[in-house]
Amino acid sequence: MNMTQARLLVAAVVGLVAILLYASIHKIEEGHLAVYYRGGALLTSPSGPGYHIMLPFITTFRSVQTTLQTDEVKNVPCGTSGGVMIYIDRIEVVNMLAPYAVFDIVRNYTADYDKTLIFNKIHHELNQFCSAHTLQEVYIELFDQIDENLKQALQKDLNTMAPGLTIQAVRVTKPKIPEAIRRNFELMEAEKTKLLIAAQKQKVVEKEAETERKRAVIEAEKIAQVAKIRFQQKVMEKETEKRISEIEDAAFLAREKAKADAEYYAAHKYATSNKLAKEYGPVYTLYFGSWPTVVLHGYDVVKEALLNQGDEFLGRGPLPIIEDSQKGHGIVFSEGERWKLLRRFSLMTLKNFGMGKRSLEERVQEEARCLVEELHKTEAQPFDPTFILACAPCNVICSILFNERFPYNDKTFLNLMDLLNKNFYQLNSIWIQMYNLWPTIMKYIPGKHREFSKRLGGVKNFILEKVKEHQESLDPANPRDYIDCFLSKIEEEKHNLKSDFNLENLAICGSNLFTAGTETTSTTLRFGLLLLVKHPEVQAKVHEELDRVIGRHQPPSMKDKMKLSYTDAVLHEIQRYITLLPSSLPHAVVQDTKFRHYIIPKGTAVFPFLSSILLDQKEFPNPEKFDPGHFLDKNGCFKKTDYFVPFSLGKYTRFGQLLASLNYVLRDPLMQSQLIELF
């Protein structure tokens, strides 16, 4: 063998080996498994992705996909229950074969299992579905359900026949319908649409008719409800009028009786006091039951006690009917540091009221306008002004306390007025006098004194309800009224367990404001009107001065007071002449006190006899006569006098004087408006 032959042999061997290697080495892609056949028999061990070697020519392989794959079945015929043949253009089946099931699936259904198994099942299940439904159901009503129905049916069969083969989704395209059938179907659908539209129109008409019927029913019910409300309103108005009339009647009778009693008592007391003063001097002792009471008669002795020795006479005299209810709380019947603290706070709050909001004077002016409007409503017909004149000052106190005024026919306001009026006029009753003399015994005896205490509690509860409302909307930076200021002070001192700023003192202070500011002002207004009617020459001078200084289109204010000398003199003379308080509330000495040449034991009650000052003949010539000249000098200017003490002297009087000076603004509009001519 020569060299050439040897080379040819080597080349042939190398070529044969290369052919054998090429035939035996094969590649399996990722996501596939290889199944092998040897001599036509399926081997049990599939191979994974990568390069593998097999016996060439004897062994063959098929690659089987084990990831998601989509098989398409096209042009599937389907007969509906009505005998119409339709064709589904394309059905896509998304499936995945689990690697562990490859051998069993290929063994049972060959490597082309999708054609031998899935395609056949698709044809079978689709025909089952179509044969059970009409063309309209298949094409329209149930078409959206075909995908899910085929998926569930296929998966159910495959779970039994081919475990490991899962159907992920089935997507069916809209079927093709023969043209003639399609046109008939469209015509049918058009007719059906017309019927539906007609039916909808009918429903709309029926609905509109029903709506109109309901509207008519609602309108009728509304008219009936309005009529009922108006009827109830009229009934309520009648009841309110009846209630007002009852209150007015009761108040009138009580006032007349109280007035007669008070006038008799004042005259008798004044006469007796003058007689006793002439006999025993300006300081003498009376016994009320077993209680010794020192009476001070005349300006000099009252001034000496309440001003010069004011700190020694700073106690409150006994008034058990009030003390047992208020228990030393509030301003009027408290003593010591509590009285000083609450008095200072109340004076500062009222003087500096508003803090950028409405001032106290503006509140009084607003109520004065409302009072004048109420009087105008009488249209110059005779009427009793007592009730209206009592409402106005009470509403001023409501505005101070609650930042709220009430209509004069408001039920809540009427109840409050009823509580205040009945208690004020019951103070002179025999039951209250007996209680004040023998409180220990009277506590256990039934009688009208218990109604008095109950009404005091009613006023207190009314104020506490308003306090609750204020607590919910309190803004300490913007106080609206007295309650807001007091609540802010409570919040400031919440860590002081002994603080006198608490809800009990707030409620009693509010009650004291009603007591100090309501009846005194309304009585002064009532007497003022009577005196001006009785003295038309005084009325004319007041009108002339008001018209000249202020005019008729501007309300008076405190700043105008200095310019209204005659009007101011009239207001002072009214208060002097009527001597609203013949004696002030009882004082008491806080220690054993030497007064003039007497020793007054600690706790002894002291009565300053104010009428002895207001009716002093030396200071006021003809004191029994109504004469504004008592407060005018020779030039017609207002003349101040220390003998003008309508409330008292000393520290106790300042709170009442503040309310009285503010109610100057409430009294002036009555004179300014000439409404006194109505009476």
UniProtKB/TrEMBL annotation:
GO terms for biological process: cholesterol metabolic process; negative regulation of cholesterol biosynthetic process; negative regulation of fatty acid biosynthetic process; organic acid metabolic process; SREBP signaling pathway; xenobiotic metabolic process. It is a peripheral membrane protein; Single-pass type II membrane protein. Residues 23-189 form the Band domain. Keywords: Cholesterol metabolism, Endoplasmic reticulum, Glycoprotein, Heme, Iron, Lipid metabolism, Membrane, Metal-binding, Microsome, Monooxygenase, Oxidoreductase, Signal-anchor, Steroid metabolism, Sterol metabolism, Transmembrane, Transmembrane helix. The keyword Methyltransferase does not apply. InterPro entries: Band_7, Band_7/SPFH_dom_sf, Cyt_P450, Cyt_P450_E_grp-I, Cyt_P450_sf, Cytochrome_P450_fam2, Erlin1/2. Its cofactor is heme. One of its GO terms (molecular function) is heme binding. One of its GO terms (cellular component) is protein-containing complex. Its main location: endoplasmic reticulum. It comes from the Eukaryota. Signal peptide: none annotated. It is found in: Endoplasmic reticulum membrane; Microsome membrane. Belongs to the cytochrome P450 family. This is Band 7 domain-containing protein.
